[in-house]
Amino acid sequence: MIEIGEVTVPAATVSRLPYYLRALRDLLRDGVTTTSSSALAERSGVGSAQLRKDLSYLGSFGTRGVGYEVETLASSISTALGLGSEHRLAIVGVGNLGNALANYSGYAARGFRLVALIDADPDVVGRRAAGLEVEHSDRLEEILAARGVSMVILATPGAAAQAVAERIVECGVREILSFSPVALQLPDDVVVRSVDVAGELQILAFHAAARHAQEGATVDGRTAPAATAR
Ligand SMILES: NC(=O)c1ccc[n+]([C@@H]2O[C@H](COP(=O)([O-])OP(=O)(O)OC[C@H]3O[C@@H](n4cnc5c(N)ncnc54)[C@H](O)[C@@H]3O)[C@@H](O)[C@H]2O)c1
Fold first, then answer.
1. Do 158 and 181 contact (CB within 8 A), yes or no?
2. 44: which of 19, 115, 151, 156 fits an S-S bond (Cβ 3.0–4.6 Å)?
3. Is the CB of 196 inside a 6 Å radius of any atom of ligand 1?
4. Has residue 222 got a pLDDT over 70?
């Protein structure tokens, strides 16, 4: 459970809030002012019962027969996610992945400002991406402090990740999005979200194997196995 202001929200709910917010912002862009829970759920890619339960943690926003006011709900979710103020972001490790992430154009629209690119390789330092120059990691502490960085995307090789993460945390950063393939050991008050594309693909492979097993069993006329995990 995660405390947001005066309410406590399950971590799984927090992880779905960005999807609701994106769907609501799409609706606002299309000039839609109210939406039903089922329409919003469909746009967000979750079930409507799940959506209603998630939103109930933030307070009661829906009106029976009318639905949700899009702007009010977007604003409430945005506040709950702490997006009222801009988060200043740095990318550490500007190789293939870091460079691609630097060139993502969606940060600003979602409350983030990329303010620093940092790398250890002298051949990478000085290159430009997203209007920023890559700076040397020898100056990491100085750069994070001077730019007011509050969140870091870590995209170094695994071997460097722990040491770099410790330096980042020493600077007071408490939120790290890590693409490095290692389990970082950091103080309890540091929140690390790890992204593992290959791991996600392995989960898809599990689902594919389960489906094939089920199809095979059906074709054979045997009872289908219970491997239907979601
Ligand atoms: N999680 C995922 O889904 C996923 C997907 C692709 C890559 N990765 C991982 O992301 C990381 C980056 O991948 P890549 O393909 O961009 O690799 P890359 O080798 O192209 O880039 C890594 C960069 O980190 C820099 N670096 C090394 N040590 C550093 C340090 N101490 N401080 C700052 N920068 C440092 C290197 O100079 C290099 O520019 C790797 O760990 C890779 O395994 C994860």
1. yes
2. 19
3. yes
4. no
Domain 87-195: CATH class, spelled out: alpha beta
User: For residue range 121-136, what is the model confidence (pLDDT) as tens digits?
Assistant: 999 999 999 999 999 9
> Any idea what DSSP says for residue 224?
P
Q: Which two tokens stand for residue 32?
A: 């839609």
> Would the pTM count as exceeding 0.80?
no
Q: CATH for 2-80, among 1.20.1050.10, 3.40.50.360, 1.10.10.10, 3.90.180.10?
A: 1.10.10.10
Domain ranges for the chain: 2-80, 87-195, 196-230
Of 119, 178, 204, the one to substitute when testing ligand 1's pocket (max ligand atoms within 8 A of C-beta) is 119
**Spatial contact of 187 and 169, defined as CB atoms under 8 Å apart:** yes
Going by alpha carbons, the residue nearest to atom 18 of ligand 1 is 95
Q: Is 178 in the pocket of ligand 1 (CB under 6 A)?
A: no
Here the ipTM equals 0.96
Question: Which residues are registered as beta bridge partners of 87?
Answer: 112
Measured in degrees and rounded to the nearest 5, phi and psi for residue 124 equal -90, -35
Highest mean pLDDT among 77-81, 82-86, 150-154, 224-228: 150-154
Is 184 touching ligand 1 by the criterion CB < 6 Å?
A: no
Please tell me the distance between residue 214's alpha carbon and the centre of ligand 1 in angstroms: 39
